[in-house]
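Please go through this protein, sequence plus structure tokens, and consider how the sequence yields the tokens. Keep your notes short.
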Amino acid sequence: MVKFASRMNLLKGSAIRELLALANKPEVLSFAGGMPAPELFPVDKIKAATDAVMEEQGKVALQYSSTNGFEHFRQQIADRMAAKLNIKTTADNILVTSGSQQGLDYSARVFCDKGDTIIIESPSYLGALNAFKACEPNFVAIPTDGDGMIMEELEKVLATNDRVKMIYVIPDFQNPSGRTWPMERREKFMEIINKYEVPVIEDNPYGELRFEGEYLPALKSMDTKGLVVFLGTFSKILAPGYRLGWVCADGEILQKYNFLAQAASLQASTEAQLVVSKFIDMFDLDEHVATIKDCYRKRRDVMIQTMEREFPPEAKFTHPNGGLFTWVELPEYINTNEMAKQCLERNVAYVPGDGFFPDAGHNNCIRLNYSAMTEERIEKGMTILGQVIKENIKK
């Protein structure tokens, strides 16, 4: 009989990936994946950038390249981080990865041994939990409120647990909750981090997708001790199919990530880097992001308005100012895994909330995505979901 490594017992198929397979049928109204709207992909401009790369650098594009990524591309990333997030950095502090998911995988492997503690928000991104589990850590989930992680609870854990190796957070339009940390909470967080000197993984896939209100500085922009590792991606602002993300970190920490990348994948795609870099040189990425935001804002509005109209008062949900998701909490007696089957029978798909927690329970929550469906389909889907929720409410 084949004997697998013990860590494989900790890994199971992603509920989201399995749901996406079911939801792939055209008749299904899917609010399950964190999918960008494919009709917004700038196909013609990408084609022009690709043609230019092949014409000018075809042999370079098809060859191996350096592990950390092309210097011009890394400088473009550094410039964008300064302009959008107030993070003052350089190309030397950037490692290009195969999506920010690879950055998550590297993070646990850089910092954690078996039995070490990783602090996360409650709830937290399911894909990060799955990436971290291979290192066999213990998770401590810090309670959250409408403004994100509760700092008093974080400090209690740091004061009493000496095996905390890293803290994983999504301060902007969090996946799955859609919540954003206000400035006061960011400042308090950095004060605590500087006191205990624990590395922080700041995951920022949605930071540029703000629909209203003022931009808030990234935690990395407030980092005076080199403790924050920033993960960024082009998946949500350009195209996820290129699988291009990056790690921004200081000195020795980035070097460790680089060593892992050399061992794990050698490098991110040469051609993808050159094409996206050429796209940024040839076209206005800010203009493209503005188009995305305008579309997603309208879709968010339709989803929230339909939920307000069709959901029963027992259903509580977040009102995100950006990003891709809203989070629904139902009475504790409702099992959203069971309810998902009822919804699929009516061609509506969502992700049950229990997978976004490291421990058992939490079966009464739902993550909903509003970026991938048209406004008409969002209204229809939320009306059906509202009806199913009502049928599950105890009279």
User: Anything to note?
Assistant: The two ends are 53 Å apart (CA to CA). The first helix runs from residue 15 to 22. The mean pLDDT is 94.
